[in-house]
Design a protein that fits this description.
about 700 residues; alpha+beta; 5-stranded mixed sheet; 15 helices; about 15% strand; extended; RNA binding; hydrolase; ATP hydrolysis activity; ATP-binding; coiled coil
């Protein structure tokens, strides 16, 4: 019989049974071992616990009562501290032994402890929130206009629960199973989405709390009806019932006319068993209460409720809901009271000082850009998106183009990055605020990355922003993969910060690191003045000539007054004197005019030389820049060689270690073979002796 052609799902070919429900005996084989829930009283000895299970058929709710034998000893309450919750031992300190499932072929099994181990990738709780926000932002392409993060009260025991919901496209029954599956992602090949590893939902929810219940409402493929799905990922359930596989109870409903019917994927018994498990281990006491959560979603969307939140070493919740009624903050080492007070005094540095402990501050800078119609709501108040560039004093922009990458990409828009760098507006107060916000596909990966750890105050106040799509983020999106491209980027950012700081630190009150050089125009001006002063005739010469003429004229006039009847000889002598003086004055005037023309020609020549000098200076500056770029490229190449040498060295050491281990194993094997051969010879010799004796 010819097999039906398998269609790819999200670009991957999945096994035909990937989305098929597990057999009932695997799903809830130990359901009768369920312990007493918090807040439910019990009597001594064996007891029966009633779980109300109702089905919705034809718009009518049908309730049944299922008896669950809870006569076994309740399991002790699990550890509520995240970093210690991975101890998967029973009350006697024994790890449960693995048993064969007894179903078909052997298969790879995911132990519940892996949920905790996987979540430890998020060392920072706010990084887990970011993963859930990413999922909502990815839903913008499906019509999402908001994501709402809030705090709810568990009506059973009064504990706090986290709510994350959006009005995106929702998830179909198949999609929600893919969401709950480890490593499955339909976004990995999509260029306009953030998620790609298929691991974010599981790691983030398990990092914030021990249990999560998901509600999703999605329009059906025909566009006329809808589906509803509920899934429970409960570490408490898996530990308490000593499960050896990660079991995720799920139920689905489909719309028929004006009512909702159960969507049976295997059998009605399986559906009822899943519903009973969800009711027993979720914060909801009845199916009506459970189904009522869909009323918050409207026609489509996803609602996530995380409960049994983790506590710190002092028994307090790791998350702080009381410090700010419009924020969710974290306690512990990430919270610095000094920085909180400084943020009030220096508002332009607020996000640098508070993003480590404040979700509101972190979410404001989490995305480089957000659509104007999309809102992030936090505890009833909108998170105002913040552009770090607005905190800078006259930011400078430059384009960074990395060297040829291994995949052949060079200068397209995915590779080049626009860097904005400048002093933060509070830099004049000399506070230690510095670093680069590096984004990948619009998502902040490294907040305020400190690349220059200089001694003293050098580098303070310099911040920058760039989007680097040419390097890949790590799976927790709190850093980048350590590659040569990242090392080159780090070195270049360090150079930019050094150059910017060295050339401009005096503008914000620091002592100047580079002394200004004498400019050619000022020195040329001084030289011109010297030349002009030397070539120009002293102004006193003209005064002397006029004074001489005036004194002679006065003396002659006084002589005429003293002797009006003087002889004609004296008159002739006087006339000759005046004539000679006039000739001298005219000659001097001619000399001054000729000297003035020479001065004008000299100034014109000097101006031409000044223009030539500026041109030569500009050319020299360009050549100097080119030389510096060449030196940087050479240094970068040397750094790459050093890195490659180190990688080769580590690879060689690793291979040598493997070779040594293999040699030792081979030697041990040879010794074992010799021992066995000796033993065989001894046995053969014994058999020969026995045979001869019997004969």
């Amino acid at each position: 019989m010819k097999k039906a052609k398998q269609e790819p799902v999200g670009g991957f070919f999945m096994p035909s049974s990937f989305l098929a429900p597990l057999p009932q005996r695997m799903v809830l084989a130990q359901y009768s071992e369920a312990p007493q829930r918090a807040g439910v009283s019990s009597s001594s000895g064996n007891r029966k616990q009633e779980a109300v299970v109702s089905g919705v058929r034809g718009g009518k709710v049908e309730e049944t009562t299922a008896k669950v034998d809870d006569g076994v000893s309740p399991v002790a309450r699990g550890c509520r501290q995240f970093w210690r919750a991975g101890d998967y031992k029973d009350a006697n300190g024994i790890i449960p032994a693995a048993h064969s499932s007894g179903v078909g072929l052997d298969h790879v099994r995911v132990h519940p402890k892996f949920l905790h181990s996987n979540a430890t990738s998020h060392k920072w709780a706010l990084g887990a929130f970011a993963e859930l926000l990413d999922n909502a932002v990815d839903e913008i392409v499906h019509g999402a206009t908001y994501v709402n993060v809030d705090v709810l009260n568990n009506r059973e025991d009064g504990s706090k629960m986290l709510l994350v919901e959006d009005n995106g496209g929702g998830m179909t029954p198949d999609n929600i199973r893919q969401c709950m599956s480890l490593g499955y992602s339909v976004k990995s090949k999509s260029s306009n989405t953030i998620g790609q590893y298929g691991n974010g939902f599981k790691t983030s929810t398990m990092r914030l709390g021990a249990d999560v219940v998901v509600f999703s409402r999605c329009p059906a493929a025909d566009g006329k009806s809808q589906t509803r799905s509920i899934g429970l990922l409960s570490y408490t359930f898996l530990r308490s019932t000593k499960k050896e596989d990660t079991v995720v109870p799920m139920v689905d409903f489909e719309q028929t006319g004006q009512g909702w019917n159960r969507l049976i994927r295997s059998t009605s018994d399986d559906w009822n068993m899943n519903m009973r498990t969800i009711l027993l281990w979720s914060p909801f006491v009845s199916e009506q209460d459970l189904i009522g959560q869909f009323d918050y979603l409207g026609n489509k969307g996803t609602r996530i409720i995380i409960y049994n939140l983790w506590e710190d070493d002092e028994g307090q919740l790791e998350l702080d809901f009381e410090a700010d009624q419009e924020d969710i903050q974290i306690r512990g080492a990430n919270r610095d009271e000094k920085n909180i007070e400084m943020a009030k005094q220096y508002p332009n540095s607020k996000h640098f000082l508070t993003y480590r402990h404040s979700l509101r501050s972190y979410a404001a800078i989490l995305y480089l850009k957000l659509p104007t119609k999309f809102r992030i709501m936090l505890r009833g108040s909108e998170v105002e998106h913040h552009d770090i560039v607005k905190d800078m004093i006259e930011p400078k922009t430059t384009t960074y183009r990395p060297q040829q990458l291994a995949d052949g990409m060079s200068n397209n828009h995915e590779v080049s990055a626009v860097l904005s760098i400048g002093f933060v507006k509070d830099a004049r107060h000399h506070i230690d605020v510095q670093g680069f916000n590096v984004y990948h596909k619009n998502r902040l990966i490294k907040p305020f990355w400190r690349v220059w750890n200089a001694a003293g105050s050098d580098g303070r106040g310099v911040i920058g922003v760039l989007e680097a799509n040419f390097i890949e983020p790590a799976h927790d999106k709190q850093g980048f993969e350590r590659t040569i491209a990242l090392l080159r980027l780090e070195a270049r950012l360090k150079d930019h910060q050094k150059q910017f700081w060295t050339s401009k630190c005096h503008e914000i009150g620091y002592s100047q690191r580079v002394k200004p050089k004498n400019t050619t125009p000022s020195s040329s001006k001084k030289a011109n003045n010297n030349i002009i002063s030397k070539s120009s005739p002293p102004s006193i010469q003209d005064g002397e000539i006029l004074a001489l003429a005036g004194s002679n004229q006065k003396s002659k006039m006084s002589g005429l007054k003293r002797s009006e009847n003087g002889s004609s000889e004296e008159e002739d002598e006087e006339g000759r004197t005046i004539k000679n003086l006039s000739i001298a004055l005219k000659d001097e005037e001619i000399n001054c005019v000729s000297k003035g023309e020479g001065k004008f020609n000299l100034l014109q020549s000097l101006e031409e030389e000044r223009v030539k000098s500026k041109k030569l200076e500009s050319e020299l500056e360009e050549k100097t820049k080119e030389l510096k770029e060449v030196e940087k490229e050479a240094q970068t190449s040397l750094d790459d060689i050093v890195v490659l040498k180190q990688m080769i060295k580590e690879e060689k050491e690793w291979r040598d270690a493997i070779e040594q281990n293999l040699r030792e194993s081979l030697k041990s094997a040879e010794q074992t073979i010799e021992t066995l051969q000796e033993r065989v010879r001894e046995l053969e010799g014994g058999q020969v002796e026995d045979g001869s004796g019997s004969s």
